[in-house]
Design a protein that fits this description.
The protein has 234 residues and is mostly beta strands. The protein has one domain: Porin (Beta Barrel). The strands form 2 sheets. It has an 8-stranded antiparallel barrel with strand order 1-2-3-4-5-10-11-15. The protein is elongated and about 80 Å long.
């Protein structure tokens, strides 16, 4: 029975953290997406936990005269070490997103005849060959995590569990890559026009625009984690 030890038992009961070698599985909903997780008790008051989460969201937005249709995709895999310092449900967790596939992919469109900004310059999208493009916002592929919360995926005295957590993932500065094609004009009359994909001035303005977007998105380098989950111990 839980809490008792036996020399003939294949697993060892711990005072608070569950039996060593016992396994729990659960489902979660968090700011990293919906996911699954697997945990195992590896020492008194210590669990090893791994999981994967997924989320997708689409949105159209407008920035500096260019319309973007963006798809936000979360694809994560993490490994965490849960420590129960007081023997109850409160735990401290450290680990890493060992796979961070979070990114934003977007198509860009500057409607024909309308003005848009790149860097510090204003252009007009050609009526004959309006400006289009692609954009992608990415994060580094691995990131450390810190969490704290209440709950144990591998409880000692019951099979079902509930957990809630908060924390942060240090995913690094986001990096925007923007590429444009079509014809951009310096005047509304469209008498001075250049290829947006090859003109050196426009390419330089694209780099400046990427830096502006990266600066506005820099808050995302510290990704907040809020999570709620339910589990079952075998």
């Amino acid at each position: 029975m839980p809490g008792a030890s036996s020399h003939n038992s294949p697993t060892k009961s711990t005072a608070h953290g569950g039996e060593i070698g016992k396994v729990g599985i659960g489902v979660t909903a968090s700011t990293l997406g919906a996911g699954i997780q697997l945990g195992v008790s590896i020492a008194p008051r210590v669990n090893l936990r791994g999981g994967a989460s997924f989320f997708s969201y689409s949105r159209t937005f407008h920035y500096d005269g260019i319309y973007y249709k963006g798809n936000l995709d979360f694809r994560n895999g993490d490994v965490l070490l849960d420590v129960f310092p007081f023997g109850g449900g409160f735990h401290l967790s450290g680990g890493a997103l060992i796979y961070n596939g979070n990114n934003v992919n977007a198509t860009a469109n500057a409607p024909a005849g309308q003005s848009f900004s790149l860097g510090s310059d204003t252009y007009y999208s050609s009526n004959a060959n309006h400006v289009t493009g692609t954009g992608k916002l990415q994060f580094r592929k691995a990131a450390p995590e810190l969490r704290f919360g209440w709950g144990n995926l591998v409880p000692r005295t019951r099979h079902f569990s509930f957990g809630i957590e908060a924390g942060i993932a240090f995913v690094g500065l986001p990096q925007m890559k923007l590429a444009l094609s079509g014809t951009a004009c310096l005047d509304a009359a469209q008498t001075m026009c250049e290829d947006a994909a090859t003109n050196t001035t426009i390419l330089s303005d694209i780099v400046t625009q990427q830096n502006k977007i990266n600066d506005k998105a820099k808050y995302a380098q510290y990704w907040p984690i809020l999570s709620i989950g339910f589990g079952y111990r075998f």
